[in-house]
Amino acid sequence: MAADKGAAGPDGPRADEPARPAGPEPGQPAAARLSLALLVAAAVTAVLVVAGRVHQPDYSASIFGQTALGALALKSWLATVTLGLAGAQVLLALWLYRKLPAAPAPAPWVGVAHRLTGIVLIGVTIPVALHCLIAYGVQLGSLRLALHSLAGCFLYGAFAAKVLLVHSKRVPGWVLPVAGGTLVTAVVVLWYSAALWYFNGFQLPHW
Questions:
Q1: What mean pLDDT comes out for the span 178-201?
Q2: What tens digit of pLDDT does each residue of 127-143 get?
Q3: Packing angle of the helix pair 175-190, 30-54 (nearest 10 deg)
Q4: Residue 21's pLDDT is what?
Q5: What separation in angstroms does the CA of 165 have from each of 179, 183, 203?
Q6: For 80-97, what is the mean pLDDT?
Q7: pTM assigned to the model
Q8: CA–CA separation, 58 and 74 (whole Å)
Q9: C-beta neighbour count of 130 within 10 angstroms
Q10: Per-residue pLDDT for 172 more than 90?
């Protein structure tokens, strides 16, 4: 969830960027860019789902030396850190778009913090995702497992699309907030379907 440095905020240009004329990029209409981003998201998601389905699970796989319940506990805490970073991303994005009540105009460091938290967020998810893929693959045997597996694959598809869109200078103003919100939603679904399940005694509230 990198900073949305390619588009002006809904109330005008970001505080740390010069104003740019409105309109699509020359030679690359916004619709084409959006279509490409959707295709990238779908392709990355599909590749991960297929790889997870054909992979033979290795239940003895470890993450930072932890296996079985130890690995589950560690991943649950890492997922909780990721959820906190996602929350910080939302607050920083609202500040950048001047939608945070009572907040002053965003200083340049707000954009830097937004980018850094996005990088750290994805970095924290990588060892968790690798362990899930190696140890379990993509499992669809129950609604919880299917939701968690598919959301995990979709997270990286959505991230790839967001990176593509961030580097586009002429996309509609609603695109990057929607892309960022989609990523945050995927993080929440992943935390709910695994970390909360673990912390709540291997069951989900009202499941």
A1: 96
A2: 999 999 999 999 999 99
A3: 20
A4: 38
A5: 9, 13, 37
A6: 96
A7: 0.83
A8: 18
A9: 12
A10: no
How far is residue 68 CA from its own chain's centroid? 26
Instruction: Label residue 98 by pLDDT band (50, 70, 90).
Output: very high
HSE-CB of 95 using CA atoms within 13 angstroms:
20
Domain ranges of the chain: 30-199
Q: Kindly report the three-state secondary structure assignment for every residue of the chain.
A: CCCCCCCCECCECCCCCCCCCCCCECCECHHHHHHHHHHHHHHHHHHHHHHHHHCCCCCCCCECCECHHHHHHHHHHHHHHHHHHHHHHHHHHHHHCCCCCCCCCCCHHHHHHHHHHHHHHHHHHHHHHHHHHHHCCCCCCCHHHHHHHHHHHHHHHHHHHHHHHHCCCCCCCCHHHHHHHHHHHHHHHHHHHHHHHHHCCCCCCCC
Cβ neighbors of 198 (< 8 A, separation 6 or more) are 72, 73, 76
Whether 7 has a pLDDT exceeding 80, the answer reads no
Say how far apart CA 176 and CA 1 lie, in whole Å.
10
pLDDT band of residue 28 (cuts 50, 70, 90) is low
- Note whether 139 and 145 are within 8 A (CB): yes
Distance CA(156)–CA(128), nearest Å, equals 13
Question: What is the C-alpha separation between 89 and 126, in angstroms, rounded?
Answer: 18
Distances (CA, A) of 4 to 7, 92, 177, 180, 203: 6, 11, 8, 9, 37
